[in-house]
Amino acid sequence: MYKKLISFDFDGTLIDTPTPEIGIPIWEKEIGSKWPGKGWWANSESLNTNVFKPELIEHIYDHFINYSINSDHYVFIATGRIKRLEKHVKNVLGLYNIDNDLYCNTGGDTFSFKTNLFETLIQKNPKADELIMFDDRDEHLEQFKIWAKKQKVKITIYDSKTNEIIF
User: Fold this and answer.
1) CA dihedral 56, 60, 66, 67 (to 10 degrees)
2) Fewer Cβ neighbours under 10 Å: the N or C end of the chain?
C-alpha cells in the first residue's frame, strides 16, 4: 500500500506535445499531405515521433523523479488521450525511459475520467493520506479544486505552467 498517490498529466504537463495549431502545419510540411481527419487529440499522428520530437517539461520532470524514488509513493500518468492511443503515448514516454503506469481515458470527458480514477486509486489504497496531482488545463484546475474539497484525503494540486501549488 502507498502513502502518497502522485499523478502527472501527459500533454502540456510532463511532455511538451504540440497543440493542433502548431502541430498540423508541421505534420503537413513533413508528410507532404493534408492532415488526416478532423481531430488532433484522438489522432495517433499527433504523437508521431518521426515527425514530432516532444520535449520533457524539465521542472515537472524534476518533481516526477523526486517523487519516484520513494517506495511509499505511487507515481503514475493520467491522460485525457483515449485508450486506443496508449501505445503511442507510451512510445513518446519511452523516448525518456518513462515506464510508469499509464491511465488513458476510457470514455467521457477528461475531468470525469481523472476524478473517477483518483477516487478508485484512493479507495484501493486505504493507507494513502494524500493525492498529489500535476496538471496544466486552467478549466480543469478550477474543477479539481472544487472536487478536492469533497475528498477524505488531502489533495495537493500543482499548476504545471507556474510550477506552483494552487490547492
Assistant:
1) -110
2) N
Nearest to 61 by CA among 46, 81, 77: 77
As given in the structure block, the three cell numbers for residue 71 are 517506495
- pTM exceeds cut of 0.70: yes
Percentage of residues of the chain with pLDDT beyond 70: 100
Going by C-beta distance under 8 Å and a sequence separation of 6 or more, which residues neighbour residue 52?
17, 18, 23, 26, 27, 46
How many Å apart are CA 68 and CA 29, to the nearest integer? 38
Count of CB atoms situated within 10 Å of the CB of 116:
12
SS3 breakdown of the chain: % helix, strand, coil, rounded to 5? Answer: 40, 25, 40
Rounded to the nearest 10 degrees, the angle between the axes of helix 138-148 and helix 110-124 is 40
| pLDDT tens-digit series, residues 43-83 | 999 999 999 999 999 999 999 999 999 999 999 999 999 99
Minimal CA–CA distance to 162: which of 57, 92, 41?
Answer: 57
Q: Tell me, what amino acid is at 23?
A: G
